């Protein structure tokens, strides 16, 4: 795919010798800390705004307290206290807030590449609280505003008689993304805020509410599994060559979870210098530190999907305002679709 925008293709990135192969390091500037959000230019924000017709809005976030028990065990559930200085006043206090526990945006600090390190060669020693290097505040300052495009992969697969079984991990190759786009009659445009609905989150929320109704706990102890993008260079190539600014999904990690049949390995894995972990084979390792891709996870896309399906229009304006937390790793996505 030649975009004629002066930027290299993914194949050209893989052939780089002046920077890690497969990386966009230096392409947006030596000190860049925005990565693919650079694709969100003023013209593309205007393009997004031009898609607003009825003014209907749709929140893409879960409630902050959506998960009574954290999905990922090293994260927790927030505790919210409301207090007042007198009977006519109220303030909030939130403890145990893990910004990546519900609908979220992962910033460029979130993952480094085991062979090459963090995006654009950032000094890992600086990725601490209080230092702004690669912090989520840069996303907040730039703003995430543009054309949102929904690919309803879950609905498409159901339509062709190949519905997703949410009790199993399922890897979605780019072929299925292409087929979904074709089925919806849409094209991915450079700078898109791409939203992939698999139906995973809606299914999970249904399980949680059924448990709450029946007083049971069917999810307790069950391993976390989810449908998601295939862990391969093909996926990275597809996202980069389409110039996707941010890729979000209604699942736990954008990519399939866990990374069992991954095609992504790093030298440190193959040479045995890095102990195997849940991160082994993750696409995050190439998307975030090498390409500088902004990622959204656990985005609430069911309502938007219903609206899009009803009128056959899958694009909209998306505005997301992550927390301006200096040196933050991630943030609640705080995203809204406007149609
Ligand atoms: C997982 O690790 C599953 O996802 P993330 O850390 O990006 O939320």
Main pleated sheet:
9 strands, mixed
**Poorly predicted ranges (pLDDT <50, ≥5 residues)?**
none
H and E order: HHEEEEHEHEHEHEHEHHEHEEE
CATH top level of the largest domain is Alpha Beta
Keywords:
globular, two-stranded antiparallel sheet, 13 strands, 16% strand, binds acetylphosphate, alpha/beta, 339 residues, Glucose Oxidase, domain 1
Describe the structure.
Strand 2 and strand 3 (91-95) form a beta hairpin. The model has no long low-confidence stretch (mean pLDDT 97). The chain is of the alpha/beta class and 339 residues long. The two termini are 30 Å apart. It is built from ten helices and 13 strands. It is 24% helix and 16% strand. The chain has a nine-stranded mixed sheet. The protein has a two-stranded antiparallel sheet with strand order 2-3. The protein has a two-stranded parallel ribbon with strand order 6-8. The protein folds into two domains: 10-62 and 103-338, Glucose Oxidase, domain 1; 68-97, no CATH class. The structure holds acetylphosphate. Residues 72, 100, 106, 252-253, 257, 284, 297 line the site of acetylphosphate.
